[in-house]
Amino acid sequence: MNVFDFDKTIYQGDSTRDFIFWCFRRYPKTLLYLPLIGYASVRYYTFHIGTKTEFKEKMYRFLKTIKGEEDIERFWKEKIGRIKPFYHQLHRDDDVIISASPEFLLKPLEERLHFTVIASKVDIRTGLYDGLNCYHAEKVRRFKERYPNGKIESFYSDSYSDEPLALLADKAFIVDGDTLIEWNYRHHKKHLRT
After folding, report:
1. Which of 41, 74, 140, 191 lies 20 to 30 Å from 148, alpha-carbon distance?
2. Domains, in order of start, for the chain
3. pLDDT digits over 103-113, tens only?
4. Residue 171 host element (H or E)
5. Paired sense of beta strands 96-102 and 116-120, if any
6. By 3-state DSSP, what share of the chain in percent is helix, strand and coil, each rounded to 5?
7. Spacing of C-alpha 71 from chain mean position
8. Per residue in 60-83, pLDDT tens?
């Protein structure tokens, strides 16, 4: 099987950020959560307080004001064209997408694009996590949980923070826009905050 990160890898941009701004434009009430999101961002990124999961739970509180699955469906009708052409050329039906984005956002793509999604388990109504943010070493744990004997032929990501997964693959590639570059293990990331 081939395994892919999602955002900036096979999707042009960051799907979570795109969805948040999509909601901001359609639901003015979501803008009331901007101060909380700003506070959580400064707390996590500037002062290094808390975990990425805690930060994201605060960020996702705006979900209480939207229409859930109905809005996700509408979002993908508009954004499905942002899947990169190289992915369509490489696609196989046993592809696995592993992402830190919320599962509720990516799951609707399973049937449309014929791949399996492993992502952060976030409640679409409350923004609360069930488990950890699916990032760095957590991606490996989640992959092995789902595929105990899984063999990754090729792995693709836009970020060296995904090195734990790259190490499981026969071949690994960094995706820079639409360009695939062989993984350079000298660029590994240490001391990542999860």
Report:
1. 191
2. 2-186 (3.40.50.1000)
3. 999 999 999 99
4. strand 169-176
5. parallel
6. 50, 20, 30
7. 18
8. 999 999 999 999 999 999 999 999
